[in-house]
Amino acid sequence: MTATPPATPDPGTAVRHPSAGDIWLAAGLALVFGFLPVFYGGVAPANDVLVALGTVLGLVQLGALAWRRVHPRRTAAVVAAAAVAHFGLGQFLQPSDVAVLVALYSVTAYRRSGSSRTWLLLALAGAVMVGTGFALSDWTGVGPAIAVGTFFFIGCAALALTAWALGLMRRARYVQQESLAERAARLERERDQQAQIATQAERTRIAREMHDIVAHSLSVVIAQADGGRYAAKSDPEAAERALTTIAETGRAALTDMRRILGILRTDGAEAADLVPQPGDSDIAALVESLRGTLPVSLIEMGDPRPMPPGTGSTIYRIAQEALTNIIKHGGPGAKATVLLQWAPQRLVLQVDDDGRGAAATSDGAGHGVLGMRERAAMLGGTLVASPRAGGGYRVRAEIPVPGGAQASAQPSQAPLSPIVPPGPLTAPGDADPAPTPDTRPSTPPRTA
Predict the structure, then answer these.
(1) What pLDDT, on the 0 to 100 scale, is given for residue 207?
(2) Any domain includes 54
(3) Does 167 share its domain with 291?
(4) In terms of domains, do 288 and 176 share one?
């Protein structure tokens, strides 16, 4: 069942009182046409009483036009009733019958076109009555009577059809104006909605960038500060290295914050000193920068390929957030392994740790995992973050990358399986874990 579309609103329906223009129109027509029968005695011979009654009925016809916009159908009904009444008195046609044409125009222009056809038929019926009345009132033979009746019928019908056509034109123009106004309002609403969506998307993107910068930098600073505080008494050099790392991390974070705030405060023409976003090739540098804070190793498998800047930046940010979460929630002594595995159609990034895992506590106010999932979803990838069965935590992201043609040439290749480094995770300086035999690629893994 389909819903019936709402009817087009009638112009003037919101008006509750006659307008000044309609009142002046009715008064002017009454002065010009209402009292003419008094001066010439009416169209047909009549006595003074009939002329007076016809004049009163004519004034009623013309006075009703003041409500032609507020109540067009009622106005047309009053005008038609008055016309029939003075026809019955023998005044077949009066100057006040100009109100019939104005009422027909009004009921056509200010009501739905379907209802105006009824009033047109009534006006044509009135034209038949007028022609018949004049043909019978001065009978001189069949031929002259038919000629007279036809003349008056054609004249009255032509005037009625003209008034009806003008009303239809006015109605069509109003409907067109309403359609244009509705379309403009709809386009304005759509524009506002698109602006809100774009604003929300940009706010989300900026929030992710701010979170990545602030959360990662502060986590490194806190970890180094705690470690430096405990090492200050026994190993002053370790405390000095911790302070150096804190200073470098703080300066880098401050530079990134200034860059983001500079983009927000200036337009594209003024932001000429922008620096490129980090990509997947910078993950090794990220791992190296965290060596003093978190024991972490990097395993790369497969043949790296050039990637779009947005894809590479997403992979870097996911790795950064996963390592940041290990620093924050992994607990003391946690070790991490970052695995980059290149496949023909996708890149697998897996970050494992042997920290607290499911026992880690969180206030629930963080947005790290949500941000990682959003980043992976924007590239058509997937991300799973959950505690490991043997302890620790795992973040595994699979991102589609260019190279589908190469994959289609090898349809029998088995899908990638999760790679778990054998044995406990090792700290830097220990032997790097090797991949299991069933997932060992043809290219030897590169460890960092």
Answers:
(1) 73
(2) yes
(3) no
(4) no
164 and 305 in a single domain? The answer is no
One-letter amino acid of 235: D
Helix 48-63 × helix 72-88 angle, to 10°: 170
Residue 190: partners with Cβ closer than 8 Å, 6 or more residues away:
none
Q: Mark whether 292 and 174 lie in a shared domain.
A: no
Q: Residue 424 corresponds to which tokens in the numbers above?
A: 């406990």
| Residue 305: predicted pLDDT | 82
Do the Cβ atoms of 441 and 291 come closer than 8 Å? no
Q: Where are the beta strands (DSSP E) in 178-332?
A: 296-301
Tell me, yes or no, whether 154 lies in a domain: yes
Intra-chain end-to-end CA distance of the chain, in Å: 66
Fill in the amino acid letter for 76.
A
Q: How many domains does the chain have?
A: 2
The predicted-structure confidence for 238-297, as pLDDT tens digits, reads as follows 777 777 777 777 777 777 777 767 666 665 444 445 556 777 788 888 888 888 778 899
Indicate the residue among 187, 217, 251 that finishes a domain.
187
Decide if 253 is inside a domain: no
Using CA atoms, how far residue 154 sits from 126, 149, 172, 274, 367, in Å, is 11, 9, 27, 83, 83
Q: Are residues 24 and 135 in the same domain?
A: yes
pLDDT in tens, 7-52: 444 554 445 678 888 889 888 888 888 777 766 655 555 567 777 8
Closest CA to 385 of 373, 377, 375, 376: 373
171 and 320 share a domain? no
The owner of tokens 């088995």 is: 414
Residues 424 and 353 sit within 8 Å (Cβ to Cβ): no
Residues 231-244 pLDDT 10s? 666 777 777 777 77
pTM of the model: 0.45
> Is 245 inside any structural domain?
no
- The pLDDT tens digits of the residues spanning 192-229 come to 888 888 888 877 777 777 766 666 677 777 776 776 77
User: Tell me, what's the pLDDT at 372?
Assistant: 86
Whole-angstrom Cα distance, residue 346 to residue 398? 6
Q: Percent of the chain scored above 70 by pLDDT?
A: 73
Distances from the Cα of 431 to the Cαs of 76, 298, 299, 355, 392, in angstroms? 101, 12, 12, 19, 20
Minimal CA–CA distance to 347: which of 309, 377, 304?
Answer: 304
Domain that holds residue 92: 20-187
Q: What is the pLDDT of residue 215?
A: 67
- Distance (Å, whole) CA 288 – CA 297: 9
